[in-house]
Design goal:
heterotrimer, A alpha+beta (411), B alpha/beta (376), C alpha+beta (366), B: 376 residues, 2 domains, 16 helices, globular, C: alpha+beta, DNA Polymerase III, Chain A, domain 2, nine-stranded antiparallel sheet, eight-stranded antiparallel sheet, elongated
Chain lengths: 411, 376, 366
């Protein structure tokens, strides 16, 4: 493609970067002998786990993420199965982010392998297409690859990054959005799930073109306020900004279990682990939040979430955990099998500390939790997540960390 | 003759009684004990005796006004707790204790907290309690009671001195039963067999015509079992279980009365939820107890057949039915008896997995019927 | 038992003992009021095992006796009655009949034998104080009483009487309030920590009496006022050494109009939500004190107040509720604010009354 044939980029330039089969690609990077062969990360051919990531070689056989491992094993008997190594994936992910942050502070990672960037050119700015190309090349030098969508909004950029995988660079120039979106099926639009798709089908809306043509009133009648938002986005109108990485909206983590967990000890131990993780990430970013969310998925795949807002922003396990445990008890009864448990914090506020008046013995008493967790943070930073924890029975290794680093909105 | 004292109540736990008495007299009482032992072993009695020994000017005479108040549950410095939640201690309940701990005693030199079913802490209530349990003021004594050690949350258990109670030997239990209830030795034996050896439950049993009736009906059913057809067995199971439910109905009536009275007392606005939760718990326990009793009677009757056929006819628990038992024993091999007993164990475990008691008992009766018909 | 009492007097007595009713469902007897007759009076008692209250009222006694009646219900009944003689008759077992004019109520009774004995306590001496000063000081310092049970001793108020002077101190470890006053003709001395809840109840109940006297035993503290005896259990532990917490000097001193300051803090605090701090900046050159607050995603507020400062410029942040509490219980038209440094306690004082000190720890900004 020849850049000079185009006029300068008008308006915002939003880029969505999506790593190609990320976990599997890292495994192939670290195991040269696996390159060119089907690799499946997560689950095991005999266990009942879930596929976390399948390499493109494995996808040829029909294997994809979130597929039960047993099914994947049937589809692709020759696959190489790898246990996930999150610390290694995080390491590569950090390198990718460094590459992006070299370009702009407006990097908003939405998971371990995805990020939005705002690369809107200044007055004498560089063509965003060149920037995207350079990022793609720099990432490839790490030994893994990514696909990039470049457009004027987050929605279009996201759809564009999916359009040509792996190693694709899809540019939707300003003004080209309607033509690009129109032929796409409605489910390509982030935020359209199966229920929405069904409902749209009843009125004959199958493509984004159809959806864009829908008038706002019928959209509202059909899908509520959410509907208008979808129509606008189907028209390529999406003003949401890319906030810099420092302005997170929430921090969350979740686990999918190798086999359902059902006892109070197991579930509370897992919740504690999640709370510890989330609280540690918050402290690492100097955040404290007031809105807690517990998410769980039952054995029948039905999902429930419960949220609660407390009066005072918290960033310490000991302050969060009791609330989280209470919230859990509202939506879960011991004995009911869980395949996924998640915990998140949002509603960040300014971090302040009310100082205390009384003598050291008292101060030591109240500051102990903070000193303790901060000490633990430093140890975990050096030696890894699992070296230390509070003594609780019933810990179990998760099969995967659901790409759930943090997220304000997975769209 | 030595003076009577509170430790006399613990005749079957002499070792424990001596140990606690020693601690009380030498002033070496720990701040927190965990009493572990089967139901009916005397844990609560021991905890109360310890309270008497500490408060009474005579080291626990058992008759002075202080001892009487402790034993009747009316002493303001002795607090006895049971879980207020549907299954666990509520954190509000523990906060009340923590608040009381922070105040000086009302009348006595100490404050004593007897915590029943210490295995029923959830993470939240346990957490709330830990600091108090670890470093209570000097005038606090906490006694936790639990059937098993392993069921107690380790962070709680590790902060207590553990005192183990043995099951009460049968001879001692029978002695107490005969003495307190005025029943004959044979009646006491049957009652104990129906109550899994728990003295307090056996006493209740002896005082309850309804429950004795259930027991007799169960024995009668077992005797007639070989002659019954399938339909008869099903009817028999239904009849015995419906009789076992009679005490539940009595309890329901009593609870309704208590609830009405409480509402009148506290006014309409006051929540009676804790009371209702307790009622629900009692009801479930009583329902389970009724079924358990049927199984225990069956088990003891079969065991009687086994001991009668073999080596120790003096061990028969259901002596009032000795003739019928002897008849069965005459033809039953030990192996067959064991097979029948296994069917009872199976029924117990099925019920613990929430199989309907009706179904479990029916299956058990069919199994036993088969053994009785072909007792090889 | 059969007695008749004037409705107004009975209600007053019931209101007093109602403070001692327990709502714990585990011991139903504690939700009852124990009623007995003695020497032409009706004696009413209540207890929740922490505080015990006894009061008496004149009555016409036809039959002596005792009973326990549901406290809340009885109080509600008597409150609803017209002003006339109320008769309580317990001649039938298990229930009492309350009649007044044409109204009559049948109420279940509880066994008086099950009711805890009223504590008998021995004190060396009882010290008598004018109840107006007592109640006022309790009201002032009780703002700083801790509601957090993790350090029980801080849920109480330290009361010291020595050399004709009454002092009370309370702290919740974030702020400390000390109030001291001389009282004419007080003899004796004592030092005791009294549970905040109990002493606050006494301050309210004793307001209608001239004097309130108090005494202390090993485990309890006793108050007497009018016909009422109020006993509270003491708190375990000892009170922190508050004297060493009070800064001896300061870098900045500001005198400010109390009403004006109070209004400004109230306004700016509207934007100090979710525990966001209130910032106080003193500009000595311009004679301006600036209050600011901001809540993320909501907005911010700012207000300048003219002041007469002495010392250096300073900026410090406080919890606005704690600050407001201090301003509201301070006395006088003007108050002084003394600040050492942004991380040391700030002090509010009454300009005309050095015996009021409200110490307040700042908030450290992240």
């Amino acid at each position: 493609m020849d850049d000079t044939l185009h006029f300068a980029w008008a308006g915002r330039a939003i880029m969505h970067l999506d790593m190609d089969a990320f976990f599997a690609a890292v495994e192939q990077l670290d195991h040269p002998e696996w390159r060119g062969r089907p690799v499946i990360v997560g689950g095991s051919p005999d266990g009942r786990g879930v596929v976390s990531t399948a390499s493109y070689e494995a996808r040829v056989f029909g294997v994809h993420s979130a597929m039960p491992a047993a099914q994947a094993a049937r589809l692709c008997p020759s696959a190489i199965w790898a246990r996930p190594r999150f610390s290694r994936y995080e390491e590569i992910s950090r390198s990718v982010r460094d590459i992006m942050r070299d370009v702009t502070p407006y990097v908003h990672p939405t998971s371990i392998d995805e990020a939005y960037l705002d690369i809107t050119p200044g007055v004498n700015g560089v063509d965003p297409v060149n920037i995207a190309r350079r990022i793609q090349a720099d990432v490839a030098r790490l030994g893994v690859t990514c696909s990039i969508g470049l457009a004027t909004s987050r929605t279009v950029a996201k759809i564009a990054s999916e359009a040509d995988k792996p190693r694709g660079l899809t540019v939707v120039r300003p003004g080209a959005e309607p033509g690009f979106l129109a032929p796409m099926p409605v489910k390509a639009l982030p935020g359209v799930g199966r229920a929405t798709e069904e409902r749209l089908r009843t009125v004959g809306v199958r493509t984004l073109g159809d959806l864009a043509a829908l008038d706002e009133r019928s959209a509202d009648q059909l899908l509520g306020s959410h509907g208008i938002d979808l129509v606008m986005r189907a028209r390529g109108i999406d003003a949401r900004p890319v906030s810099g990485g420092s302005e997170r909206k929430s921090v969350s983590a979740e686990h999918t279990f190798r086999s359902d967990i059902r006892t109070r000890e197991e579930v509370e131990a897992e919740l504690r682990r999640l709370v510890e993780r989330v609280a540690r990430r918050m402290r690492a970013h100097g955040l404290s939040g007031r809105t807690f969310t517990v998410k769980l998925r039952y054995a029948d795949f039905s999902t429930r979430t419960v949220s609660r807002t407390v009066a005072v922003p918290a960033d310490i396990d000991a302050d969060i955990l009791p609330v989280a445990v209470t919230m859990l008890s509202e939506v879960w009864t011991p004995g009911a099998g869980l395949r996924l448990l998640g915990f998140g914090v949002a509603g960040f506020g300014q971090q302040t500390q009310q100082l205390e008046l009384l003598d050291e013995s008292v101060q030591a008493d109240t500051s102990k939790p903070r000193a303790l967790v901060e000490g633990l943070d430093r140890i975990k930073e050096r030696f890894g997540d699992d070296v230390l924890g509070f003594g609780v029975r019933g810990l179990r290794a998760p099969i995967r960390e659901n790409k759930g680093e943090e997220d304000d909105d997975p769209v | 003759m030595e003076r009577s004292c509170v430790w006399d109540d613990l005749i079957a736990q002499k070792r424990v009684a001596d140990f606690l008495k020693q601690a009380a007299t030498t002033g070496t009482v720990s701040h927190a004990y965990l009493f572990v032992g089967p139901t009916g072993a005397g844990k609560k009695t021991a905890a109360r005796a310890l309270a008497c020994a500490l408060f009474c000017d005579d080291g626990g005479c058992g008759v002075c006004s202080i001892c009487r108040r402790v034993r009747n549950g009316l002493h303001p410095d002795v607090h006895i707790l049971q879980p207020a939640g549907a299954a666990t201690y509520m954190v509000e309940q523990i906060r009340e204790v923590i608040h009381d701990v922070s105040l000086r005693p009302v009348q006595a030199t100490h404050k004593i907290y007897i915590i029943e079913e210490a295995d029923r802490f959830n993470a939240e209530s346990a957490n709330a309690f830990l600091k108090t349990l670890e470093e209570p003021p000097d005038d606090v004594l906490i006694v936790l009671l639990s059937r098993t050690f392993d069921a107690v949350i380790p962070t709680i258990a590790s902060r207590c001195q553990v005192v183990r109670f043995r099951p009460v030997p049968e001879s001692a239990a029978l002695g107490v039963l005969v003495q307190r209830s005025g029943a004959t030795l044979n009646e006491a034996k049957a009652a104990l067999a129906a109550s899994d050896g728990v003295v307090s439950r056996a006493l209740d049993f002896l005082a309850s015509p309804v429950r004795r009736q259930t027991r007799n009906a169960t024995v009668e059913l077992l005797k007639r079992l070989p002659l019954m057809d399938g339909h008869d067995v099903l009817l028999g199971a239904r009849q015995v279980l419906s009789e076992a439910k009679a005490p539940v109905e009595l309890l329901k009536t009593a609870q309704a009365g208590e609830l009405a009275e409480r509402k009148e007392l506290l006014g309409k606005k006051q929540s009676t939820k804790p009371l209702e939760e307790r009622h629900k718990r009692e009801l479930t326990a009583r329902e389970r107890e009724g079924v358990t009793e049927v199984l225990s009677v069956t088990e003891s009757w079969l065991r009687d057949c086994l001991v009668m056929s073999g080596w120790a006819p003096e061990l028969v628990a259901n002596a009032d039915d000795a003739d019928a038992i002897a008849e069965v024993a005459a033809v039953m091999t030990p192996r067959a008896a064991v097979r029948a007993l296994e069917s009872v164990t199976r029924a117990r475990s099925r019920i613990s997995y929430n199989v309907s008691p009706q179904l479990a008992v029916e299956a058990m009766l069919f199994d036993i019927q088969e053994v009785l018909r072909c007792p090889r | 038992m059969k007695v008749s009492v004037a409705r107004g007097e009975l209600l007053e007595a019931l209101s007093a003992v109602s403070k001692g009713l327990s709502t714990r469902t585990t011991l139903p007897i504690l939700s009852g009021i124990h009623i007995s007759t003695r020497d032409g009076s009706l004696v009413l008692q209540s207890t929740d095992l922490e505080i015990s209250i006894k009061t008496k009222t004149k009555a016409r006694i036809e039959d002596a006796g005792q009973t326990v009646l549901p406290g809340k219900l009885l109080t509600d009944i008597v409150r609803s009655l017209p002003e006339a003689a109320v008769t309580i008759d317990t001649s039938s077992t298990g229930s009492a009949i309350v009649t007044c004019g044409q109204s009559s109520f049948t109420v279940k009774t509880l066994s008086p034998e099950d009711f805890p004995k009223f504590p008998v306590i021995s004190t060396d001496e009882m010290i008598s104080l004018p109840s107006s000063s007592f109640s006022k000081i309790v009201h002032q310092v009780s703002k700083a009483v801790s509601r957090d049970e993790t350090r029980p001793i801080l849920t109480g108020i330290l009361v010291v009487i020595e050399e004709g002077m009454l002092r009370m101190v309370a702290t919740d470890s974030y702020r400390l309030c000390l109030r001291e006053t001389t009282i004419e003709g007080v003899a004796g001395s004592l030092e005791v920590v009294i549970p905040g809840r109990g002493i606050e109840d006494v301050a309210r109940l004793a307001a209608s009496s001239e004097q309130v006297s108090l005494g202390v035993s090993d485990n309890q503290v006793i108050f007497q006022f009018g016909e009422t005896v109020f006993i509270s259990r003491r708190i375990e532990g000892s009170f922190p050494n508050y004297r060493q917490l009070i800064p001896k000097d300061h870098q900045t001193r500001v005198v400010i109009d109390r009403a004006e300051f109070s209004e400004a803090v109230k306004r700016v605090s509207l934007l100090a939500q979710h525990n966001a701090p209130l910032r106080v900046a003193v500009n000595t050159a311009d004679h301006i004190l600036t209050l600011t607050a901001q809540t993320q995603d909501v907005g911010e507020a700012k207000e300048d107040i003219e002041i007469s400062p002495v010392g250096e410029d300073v900026e410090i942040a406080f919890n606005h509720t704690y600050l407001m509490d201090g301003i509201s219980v301070a006395e006088g038209e003007k108050i002084a604010i003394e600040i050492v440094s942004p991380l040391k306690p700030g002090i509010l004082k009454s300009v005309d009354n050095s015996e009021f000190i409200y110490l307040l720890m700042p908030v450290r900004l992240g």
